[in-house]
Write a structure and sequence with these properties.
With 461 residues, the protein is an alpha+beta fold. The protein has three domains: 120 residues, no CATH class; 155 residues; 88 residues. It has 16 helices and ten strands. Bound molecules: zinc ion.
Length: 461
């Protein structure tokens, strides 16, 4: 059978223009012939887009073809064709050039109205779609995916997508105000008068590593965080510490977006590293730092694994060490630092005295002395975890580890050969965190209010 698709466009003056969009001959003898194929839909959407954009561009140029001051018709100085890159194809648009009216002084002699309408010649929704997918999968896969389902222009390639994502991330970066040492703006007296805040906000901050493409460096550290208010959606943040000059501002803006007010408590859960502690310092009047229980158990688990190995060589000693390790865990869980640190000292001393042919004894000794230092440096951040748990408070953000994996893992490390520059990784983190917490689209709608779908499409009866 033959299928023809026609459209009608009625302009503001009430003139209706009709045109053919597509015509297919379709069979109906086998399953693959039923309905539109992807190729049919691509042709259809491309032609439709062409007609719509042409009509809109023409109407816009028409509206700008008279002087805005005296109303006189402007003299036309030829036109050229520009490519407008949209989700539904690269659309050639006729862009006329006009002489400015002589009634007002102008710096240039001529102008093209479409330059104001289509800056950059890329549709905002195209930028959004490219940025979103490239934040999740590689640039190359993004191109393949978009070309599979949409009549995207043939010349779209991984490099273009990378450039567009960079442009979007840089725009977000340019909106970030200056760094400050301290973000507290209210006095204690003013805070007294603030309305009662919602529940506390827990902020987990942790680091991960990304393979570096920079000379003389195999990896560099990225910092990721997740802010979890009791009653609002979570937000992610990410940055490359050695590149970023505004880590505190970044965190502050996320908290502000989440409606944080200065009389609201923030609990920071970290691994106790200096850089994350500094980032959280002076961030809020009411805050606490807690060493994430996850980091304690992770280190204990590592030592426990070694002790299991030692048991094959020195069973009695291994059993004794395992007993001390269990004690250490119990003391720390109950916030009993005094006895916990004595037990850790015992563990280190006992390990020094073990005579064994166990190959990993050195690694075990090292893990134990590192743990000793770790606990003594982080002592001020160790609460009574057991008590917190009893009160239903968080003791761990096991979520932090998964945040690092979510934010950094798939896009940055999965393909081992993938290497990053610091700036590239930092920009990617900006679009990736917004993609993951679902705020990327909102950012675009703030930039381009026309992207909000105000009126739903009316279906023909
Ligand atoms: Zn004029």
């Amino acid at each position: 059978m033959n299928i023809q698709i026609k459209i009608q466009i009625t302009d503001l003056g009430g003139v209706t223009h009709e045109c053919n969009i597509a015509e297919f001959d379709k069979g109906f003898g086998c399953v693959a012939e039923i309905g539109l194929s992807i190729e049919d839909s691509k042709g259809l959407l491309l032609n439709l887009q062409q007609e719509i954009v042409a009509a809109q561009a023409q109407a816009f140029c028409e509206a700008h073809s008279t002087c805005s001051c005296c109303g006189r018709r402007l003299r036309r100085k030829g036109s050229k064709s520009v490519q407008y890159r949209t989700v539904f194809g690269d659309i050639p648009v006729d862009s006329p050039r006009f002489y400015h009216c002589a009634c007002q002084p102008h710096t240039a002699q001529t102008f093209s109205p479409l330059t104001a309408l289509l800056p950059g010649h890329v549709a905002p929704e195209m930028l959004w779609l490219e940025t979103k997918w490239a934040s999740l999968v590689s640039f190359g896969v993004t191109v393949d995916l978009l070309k599979d389902v949409l009549p995207i222009g043939k010349q779209l390639n991984a490099e273009t997508v990378r450039r567009h994502l960079g442009r979007v991330a840089e725009r977000m970066e340019s909106e970030l105000a200056d760094e400050q040492y301290n973000f507290i703006q209210t006095t204690a007296f003013e805070r007294e008068k603030l309305p009662n805040p919602a529940g506390p906000i827990t902020v987990g901050i942790d680091g991960g590593y990304v393979r570096s493409r920079e000379k003389g460096q195999s990896h560099f550290e990225v910092t990721v965080g997740k802010s979890i208010p009791a009653d609002r959606p979570d937000r992610y943040l990410g940055l490359v510490q050695s590149h970023d000059e505004k880590p505190k501002r970044r965190l502050h803006e996320v908290l502000k977006d989440q409606g944080w007010q200065e009389n609201q408590q923030i609990t920071f859960m970290t691994d106790g590293g200096d850089s994350v502690i500094n980032m959280a310092r002076d961030m809020a009047p009411a805050f606490e730092h807690i060493l994430d229980w996850f980091h304690i158990t992770m280190r204990i688990t590592v030592m426990h694994q070694y002790i299991k190995g030692l048991a094959h060589h020195n069973l009695a000693e291994a059993e004794q060490l395992a007993r001390i390790l269990r004690q250490i865990k119990a003391y720390l869980w109950n916030g009993n630092l005094h006895d916990g640190q004595i037990a850790i000292d015992d563990l280190v001393m006992d390990l020094d005295e073990v005579e064994t042919d166990y190959a990993s004894i050195k690694a075990l000794r090292k893990a134990a002395t590192e743990f000793q230092t770790y606990i003594s440096n982080s002592a001020w951040m160790i609460p009574n975890y057991a008590e917190r748990r009893r009160y239903g408070e968080r003791v761990s953000t096991g979520f932090v580890e998964s945040t690092v994996n979510t934010v950094v893992g798939k896009r940055f490390c999965k393909r081992q050969q993938m290497r990053w520059s610091k700036i590239g990784a930092h920009l990617m983190l900006q679009t990736r965190t917004r993609t993951l917490d679902g705020t990327l689209r909102g950012k675009f709608e703030q930039w381009y209010p026309g992207m909000k779908s105000a009126s739903p499409v009316k279906l023909a009866a």
